[in-house]
C-alpha cells in the first residue's frame, strides 16, 4: 500500500473505532432503515444517531434518501460489513484460544 493511502485507511479505521457507529452499521446490515428505526434499535438519542450518520455519510460509508419527512439510510460500502465480519471473527477466535489455554492451565494445576 502506498504511503499516500495510509491516511485514508487510518481514517476509515478511526471511523469504525466508535462503538455507536458499529451499532448503527449492525442495524443497517439487514437493509435500509429510517433514522427513527435506527434510534429505536440502538437505544440512543436521535441527535446522537444523526451526528454519527452524518459523519458516515460524509465518508461514503452510508447513503441517504429522503421520502417525505423521513430520511432513509443504507450501507453503500459493503467492504465495511466484510471488514467488521473479519474482525469479529478474529476476536471470537482469539477469545476461544485464550479460554482453551486457561482451561488447559487449570486442568494441569488440578
Q: How is this structure best described in words?
A:
- This protein is 70% helix and 13% strand.
- It has a 3-stranded antiparallel beta sheet with strand order 1-3-2.
- The chain has helices at 3-16, 19-28, 35-42, 46-58, 78-109, and strands spanning 33-34, 62-67, 70-75.
- It has a domain at 3-77: Orthogonal Bundle (Arc Repressor Mutant, subunit A).
- With 110 residues, the protein is an alpha+beta fold.
- The chain starts with a helix and ends with a helix.
- 11% of the residues are buried.
Mean pLDDT: 90
How many separate helices? Answer: 5
Q: How many strand units?
A: 3
> Can you name the CATH architecture of the domain at 3-77?
Orthogonal Bundle
Structural class: alpha+beta
CATH class of the domain at 3-77: Mainly Alpha
Trace the largest sheet across and list its strands. Answer: 1-3-2
The major pleated sheet works out as: 3 strands, antiparallel
CATH superfamily of the domain at 3-77: Winged helix-like DNA-binding domain superfamily/Winged helix DNA-binding domain
CATH topology of the domain at 3-77: Arc Repressor Mutant, subunit A
**H and E order:** HHEHHEEH
Helical fraction: over 70%
The unreliable regions are none
Assembly state here? Answer: single chain
Which band does the percent of strand residues land in? 5-15%
The radius of gyration is: 18 Å
Amino acid at each position: 500500500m502506498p504511503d499516500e493511502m495510509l491516511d485514508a485507511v487510518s481514517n476509515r479505521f478511526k471511523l469504525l473505532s466508535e462503538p455507536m457507529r458499529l451499532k448503527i452499521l449492525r442495524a443497517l446490515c439487514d437493509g435500509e432503515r429510517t433514522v427513527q428505526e435506527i434510534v429505536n434499535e440502538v437505544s440512543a438519542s436521535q441527535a446522537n444517531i444523526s451526528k454519527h450518520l452524518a459523519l458516515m455519510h460524509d465518508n461514503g460509508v452510508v447513503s441517504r434518501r429522503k421520502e417525505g419527512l423521513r430520511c432513509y439510510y443504507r450501507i453503500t460500502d459493503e467492504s465495511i460489513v466484510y471488514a467488521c465480519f473479519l474482525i469479529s471473527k478474529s476476536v471470537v477466535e482469539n477469545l476461544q484460544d485464550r479460554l482453551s489455554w486457561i482451561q488447559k492451565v487449570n486442568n494441569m494445576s488440578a
